[in-house]
Amino acid sequence: MSVKLKQLLVVMSVITISGISTAATVNYKIDPTHTATVFSWNHLGFSTPSANFRDIQGTIAVDNDHPEKSSVNVNIPVKSINTNVAIFDTKLQQSEWFNSAKFPVITFKSTKVETTDNKNFKILGQLTIKGITKPVVLTAVLNQQVQHPMLKVPAIGFNASTQIKRSDFDIAGYAPAVSDEIDIQITTEAIAVK
């Protein structure tokens, strides 16, 4: 066998292997109309109000054969906050709270994905709020990963939860009367990128 033929076979093998590994990962785009990030807090021990963000954007890369290679990247516009109290929504944009004029976007970028059964996941990542980045772990459950019955393309859905402290992100006003701990519940649908 000639040297050139051997080199050609090696190149073809590399291309084939690359194609297989690339095909194993499916990239999904988060559907903001079917995605919600709801957060709640304790108010003076009397109630547990909640609020949510809208227009959440991001991507989920899923490798079913090697879940540890999967990743999540999310952008949340601060101005999309909805507490159901208009004056409070406005107040939360101010500098002592989220300071949306200077820090308009909250981001989450995964650094590691762990699973034992391909249904339940720990998604470790970096959460950035108000320019401050802290590690966060999302406890996630895969709802389903099938062809979307209406759109006829691959789709995926997750629920996830975590807890953070407001004080970690310089948003600690009125603590401890208003709890420092914030519980976060996330649900998302994402559609495969063509």
UniProtKB/TrEMBL annotation:
Record keyword Signal present: yes
Pfam family, one: YceI
Keywords: Signal
Keyword Signal: yes
Domain Lipid/polyisoprenoid-binding YceI-like: 27-191
Signal peptide residues on this chain, from the entry's feature table: 1-23
Source domain of life: Bacteria
Protein name listed in UniProt: Lipid/polyisoprenoid-binding YceI-like domain-containing protein
Organism: Acinetobacter rudis CIP 110305
Lineage: Bacteria, Pseudomonadati, Pseudomonadota, Gammaproteobacteria, Moraxellales
